[in-house]
Amino acid sequence: MTAVPGAALLTAGDLRKSYGPTSALAGADFSISGGEVVAVMGPSGSGKSTLLHCLAGIVPPDGGRVTYRGRDMYSLSDAERSALRREEFGFVFQFGQLVPELTCLENVALPLRLAGLPRRRAEARAEELLARLEVADLAEMRPGQVSGGQGQRVAVARALVNDPRVVFADEPTGALDSLNGERVMGLLVAAARESGTAVVLVTHETRVAAYSDREVVVRDGRARDLAGAV
Amino acid sequence: MSGTMRAWARDLRLGFRLAVSGGGASWTRTALSAFGVGLGVVILLLAASVTSVTEARSDRADARYAAPADVEAGDDTFLLSDIQTEYRGDWISGRLIQPDAGRETTAEPPPGLDAFPAPGEMVVSPALARLLDSAEGALLAERLDYRRAGTIGDEGLVGSQDLAFYLGADDLTAGDDGFRAEGFGGMPASQERLPPALLLLVLVICVVLLMPVPVFVTTAVRFGGERRDRRLAALRLIGADRAATRRIAVGEALVGAVPGIVLGGLLFLLVRQFLAGISVRGTSAFAEDIVPSWPLTVLVLLAVPLLTVAVTLFALRSVAVEPLGVVRKSQDRPRRLAWRLVPALLGVALLVPLLGDFSGDRGLTSAQAVMAVVLLLSGSTALLPWLVERATARLRGGPLAWQLATRRLQLSNGPAVRAISGITVAVAGATALSMLFAGASEQETSRTGADLDRAQAEVFVSTTDAGDSAALVDELRGTPGVERVLSYADIPVAPLSGGGASDVASIPLIVSDCGTLVELAEITDCAEGGVYAVPAPEEWGVTLPEPGTVLDLGPAPEGEEAARPVPWTVPASLTEADPRPNPGGWPVHGLLATPAALGVEPPPHGDTRMILSADLADPDTLELVRNAVWDVAPGGGGARELTSTQVSDQFANIQTGLTIGAMGVLALIAGSMLVTTLEQLRERRQLLSALVALGTRRTTLGASVLWQTAVPVVLGLGLASAVGVLLGAMLISAVSLPLGGWLAFLPMAGAGAGVIALVTLASLPFLWRLMRPDGLRTE
Amino acid sequence: MSISHTLLGLLESGPCHGYDLKRTFDVHFGHGRPLHYGQVYATMSRLLKNGLVEVDGVEPGGGPERKRYAITDAGVTDVERWLSRPEKPEPYLQSVLYTKVVLALLTDRSADDLLDTQRAEHLRLMRELTRRKIDGDLADQLVCDHALFHLEADLRWLELTAARLDRLASEVRS
C-alpha cells in the first residue's frame, strides 16, 4: 500500500486519537493522490469520521502525522489550518451543515466570503456551482424550504465552490434515499473529476463506495488499504 | 371529572420526570430556570418588605422619642439634649442625658440601655463603636474622648448601621441646653409627607424596578424551550394529544418554578442579612425588620407559579407540536402594528388628564399615574418585536458576520426580542425617571449663594462667651490648612419693653471687629465704636430700632420670665449700610456693632459664627476644625464645608435607591441575556462545528454573535429612549416642573450598551469551546 | 462450494474419523441435505493422493470407515489459499461464502480478512458497473442497478453473518 513518494497529495501515518477512554484511531495510515477518489469504509464506530477529521486538519491527532503537499499539517497554527480549510478543502457532511438563516445561494457563497471575496463576486460564482449541480432554482430559498436531496446538492456545491484540492465528504448520502443518493454522488464525483479534485469519501454503503477509485477499510482504529491486496 | 384530574396528575408527573431525568442538560436547564425564578422571587419579596421596613423604622424612632414634659425635677425625670456632629460626611447623632436624681433615679433608661450613663461616660451604637475603633475613625475618637460604658442595644436604634451615642451629663439645665422628660416612646413621631413630585418619582421607581421581574421570570421559564418542544413532539408521536402535551409542559415548568420559589426564599434570607449590613446615606435597616408583608408574600407565592404556567401555555400557543416535529406558527404572518400600539396609547391617554394636575393626595390619581406608566412601559415591549422585524426585514449584504446575524434575526427574532424586552422597560423607565429627577433637582436643589472665593468653610458654635470664642479662634488659626478665621457673635436682642419678647420680633445683633463687619455688609468707614443698621428685605416686616431705643441684650426665651435684663441704648451714631451676602451665602441684616460700641458683655445666649478660608483638600482638616469646635461646645456647634448648591436629603436618598435598583435590574437582565445567548449557541452546536470545518474564523462568529445581540438591543434602546423621553416629559408636566433633561436617556442607554458588550464578552469563551472540533463527533 | 476444501478445513481443528467428519459437515453445512459417505470416502482418497491429508491411525476392526485422517502442512496451506482467494462476484454466492466464514471462524482465522478481501473483489466489479451506469443509457442504468443492488446485498449479508458468527464464536470461546 505504500504510495509513490511525491505523487501523494495527502498522507497520514500511524494516526492515534482517543476520546477519553475510547480509542478512535490506533495507528491508521492513509494516502491519497491528486484527483483520486478514495472511499473510507468500515463498521460504525470504527473511527472513519475521526480519520476524516484528522486528515482535514479539524481534529489534531494524539500521535502520528498528517502531511499535506509536503507540509506537516499539525505543525501549522490553528489559524493557518483554518485558512487551509477555507482555501484548499471542501466539506460535505451528512446533515446540519447549511446555515438555516442564509439562502442556498448565500450558503454556497459562504466559503468564498470566508476567504474574503466580495459578496457579489462570491455569489456570482455560487450561482455557477448551483447551476452545475442542477439546483439553480433554489438560490433564494432557505435550507429549511428544500428537500434533503436538494440540500445535499447545495452542500456539494458549497464544497466545490472554492475549487478545492480535496473534498472531504462524511456520509454525504447517509440521510438520502437511493435515487437522491445516486444523484448527489454522481454530481459530486463528476464535478470532482472534472476539476481534478481529490475526494475523501467516508461511507458505510458499498454502492456509494463504488463511485471511488479505491477503498480503505477502517477497523478498530486501523486503516487498511486494500488496493494491492489481490 | 375525576378522569380529567387523573389525566392532569399523570401528565404533570410525567412532566416532572422529564424535567429531572433527562441527564445533565435537563438538570442544567431546570437549575437555570429555578435560579431565574428565584432571583425574581427575591426581588418581589424585597419589594413586599418595603412597608415593613419603613414601619419598623418609624416604630423604632417613636420608641426613642422623648417628649418634653412640663414637670418639676423628680426621681423619675431626666434632662435630655440632642447633639450631633459630622464626621467625613456621616452624621453622628448623640444625646446628652442626665437623670435629675442622679444615681438614685427611678426613671426608665432609654431603649437599648440598661442604665443611665454616668456623667462623662457614653454608650455607643455598634456601628459607632466599630468606627471609633477603626483607623479611619481616629480623629472622631479624639473628639468623642469619653469612657465607653456600653453598647446601645438594637431596640434603641432606628437602623442597624446608625451612628449614635448617649453621653452622660451633669450640667444640663432645662431651657437653652435641653429639656426635661419623663420617659421614652408613646408619642408618635411626625411623618414627613412627600411632595407630589417625589411621590410620583417613588411610584415610577417601584414600577420600573418591578416590571423587568416578570420579564425575567418569563425568560427563565423558557430556558431550553426548543428542546422541550422537540421532546413534546416525540410524546405526540407515541400518542399524547395536544392537551396532554400542554399539561406535561406545565409540569416541566413547575419543576423549575417550585424550587425557584424555595431558592428565592433562601436567597431572600441571605440578601436581607447582607442588606442589614449596609448603610445608604445614613439609612440602614435591621434584618429582622425586613419582613415581607403577609398578603404580598402570599400573592408572590401564588403569582410566580401562575406566571410560569401562563408563560408556558402562551409559548406553546405559537407553536404546533405535531408528532413529527415542531412547527412554528408565527413565522409567516408579519406582525401587526395596530394592536401593539394600544397599550402605549392607553398609557398616554391616562397621563394626559394628569398634566399639570398631579398632587398625589388622592389615591385615584396615584393609581392612574401608576397604570399609565405600566401601560406605556409594557407598550414599549409590545412594540419592540414589530420594530425589530420591520427594521431587520430589509437588511441585506454587508460583511459576512453582519449577514449571518441579520439573517438569523430575520428568520427568528423571538428569543432575542424576549431577552431585550426587559432592558427596554428598564431603560425607558430609568430615562423617564432621570428626566423627572432633572426637573425635581432643579426644584429641590437650593443655591446656597456661598461665595467660594471668599471662604471655604463655616463654623457655628452655640455660645457667645468671649473667652471660648477667642480660644477657639486661636485654636483654629493654629490648625494646619486653615488660613484665615473671621469670627462674629450673632445675638438675638429685643426692645426692652417690660414683658417678654413674645409679641416683638427679635432683632439680630452682630458683634465683631471691623475686619469682619466689612465682610458682612457694605460698610466703607468702619471704626471701633461704630454701629450700623442693615435693613432686612421689606416683606420680612422687621423694623430696625431708631437711635435712642433701649434694647435688652439678654431677652428671655419665648414664654419665660426675663432673668435680668441687660439694657443697651442704640447710639445716635447709627449709620445705615447696604446688605452684602456673607461668604456663607446668607445675607446678614440687623444691627452690626463693634465690641467697643456695646460697652457691656452680652450674656452668652447667642451664636458665634466663624468664616474660614482654608485648604480642605485634606479631609482631616475639616475634622480637626470640628474637633476644636467640639472641645468648646460639645454637640453645640459644627463646621461644614461651603458648597455652591445643596441637595435635599430626601431627594438624594431616592436617587441613591434608584441607582442601586437600576444597576440590580440591569445585572438581572444581563444574566438572562447571557443565559439565552448560551442556550442559542448550544442548540447550534453542530452547525458551529460544521462552520469551523469550513475554516470560519473565530472573529467572524464572535462578531456575528455581537451583531445578533447588538442589533435588537440598539433598536430596543432607541425605542426605550424615545418612550422614556415621552414618558419623562409627560411626568414632568404632570407635576409642573420645568421641562428639561432631554439627554437623560444617554446614561441608561450607555449602561444598556455596556450590558451588550458584557454579555457578548461573557458568551465568547463558551462560543470558543463550542467551536472546538469535538462538536462534529456527535454526528 | 468446494467439499474437498471444506472437509480439509474441518480437519484443521484436529484428526478425525471419516464418519465424524461427515457428521460435523452435516451439522454445519448440511442444511437438510446430508453428505453421502461415499462422497467423503472419495474426497478423502483424492486428498490422500495429493498429500493434503494423511492417515493418522486405524482403529482395530478394519473397514474404511475406521481410518483416522489428519491434515498435512500442504493441506493447511491449501485451505489458507482457498479462504483468502475471493470468490468471483456473482449473485447467489451465499453458500460458498457462508462456508468460508464458518470455516475461518472454526479454524481461528479472522473472518474480517476474508470479508475485506471479498469486498474488494465485489467493489472492483461494482466500480465497473457504476462506471457503465454513469456512461450508459437508461437501460444500462437499470440493468447495472439491479446487479449493484444484488452485489451490495450479498456483501451486507456477509458482513452481518461475519459479525453474528464472530460474536457467537467469542461467546463460545469465553
From TrEMBL, chain A:
It comes from the Bacteria. Residues 10-230 form the ABC transporter domain. Keywords: ATP-binding, Nucleotide-binding, Transport. The keyword Transcription does not apply. GO terms for cellular component: plasma membrane. PROSITE patterns: ABC_TRANSPORTER_2. InterPro entries: AAA+_ATPase, ABC_transporter-like_ATP-bd, ABC_transpr_LolD-like, MacB-like_ATP-bd, P-loop_NTPase. This is ABC transporter ATP-binding protein.
UniProtKB/TrEMBL annotation, chain B:
The lineage of its organism: Bacteria, Bacillati, Actinomycetota, Actinomycetes, Kitasatosporales. This is FtsX-like permease family protein. It comes from the Bacteria. Pfam families: FtsX. It is a multi-pass membrane protein. Keywords: Cell membrane, Membrane, Transmembrane, Transmembrane helix. One of its GO terms (cellular component) is plasma membrane. It is found in: Cell membrane.
From TrEMBL, chain C:
Residues 7-78 form the Transcription regulator PadR N-terminal domain. It holds the Pfam family PadR. Coiled coil: none annotated. InterPro entries: Tscrpt_reg_PadR_N, WH-like_DNA-bd_sf, WH_DNA-bd_sf. This is PadR family transcriptional regulator. It comes from Streptomyces triticirhizae.
